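REQUEST FORM: STRUCTURE PREDICTION
Request ID: SP-0412
Submitted by: Lab K.M.
Chain count: 1
Length (residues): 267
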Amino acid sequence: MAIARRSLIKRSAGALTLAGSGRLAHAAENLRPVVVIGATGRSAGPIIAQALEQGRRVTGLARRPERLTIDHPNFTAARGDVYDIDSLSDAMRGDEVVISVIGRGLADVDSEPGYVDLYSVGGSATLQAMRRKGNKRIITMTSGGTEQIPPAKPTNGDPSDEFVWRHRNVYGDMQRWERILLRSDMEYVVLRPRRLIDGPIQNNLKLSVHRNHAAFDERSGGHRSSVTFADVAAFTLAQCEGNGYLGTAVGIYSDVYLGALPEASKD
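STATUS: Completed
RESULT:
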């Protein structure tokens, strides 16, 4: 008889470890398996953990899969690169929802990155791999502010405008990727979360939904707000079966401001 269990999640050295593994009481027949691209990133950890909790089959694709210290019978780590179509398709069976949380690190917030094509070229390769294997649905993460790149260097003193301007090449490539999806034949949802922080699920997400990816002012939803990785993970997984947001870009925000929640221990 299958044993119900509650997984324990611990973050260690940037990796995620699940303990207390065992079979779920129910096989979650109605929940689709997922392939998580960018599996070693901060957004991916809660998505993988929650997907396994739900009983899904999960494949985590990363350039360095040895960093994935996840011990669970439903989890497979795969080596791959978003610029390599073969490695992407090798990680897919054809029945999964693809969740792309690739990202370019912005640790140096004062830098001005040069030309970026990670999202557009890597995203296009992902779509080609999906077509090869027959996968139909992709959920992808860009960022709040994607449609708000200032046309010139800001002089209004707004730190959000200044940040987006400095990283305009990153946001510009996110725009290119969203336009590629808009013209594609895939079922897709674009997620544009505002400032992601560690912390437990708050169940406080607010959404601004935009069809055809028209330009919009996300600040109407609180441009200084922050949301937890855990909340965004829960919303992401809900889109694997839900159809309400297909073909849209979803701004994700809350009424909680950056720093209002304690960050998780980095130990």
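NOTES: Helices lie at 44-53, 85-90, 118-133, 159-166, 168-182, 229-238.
Reviewed by: T.R.
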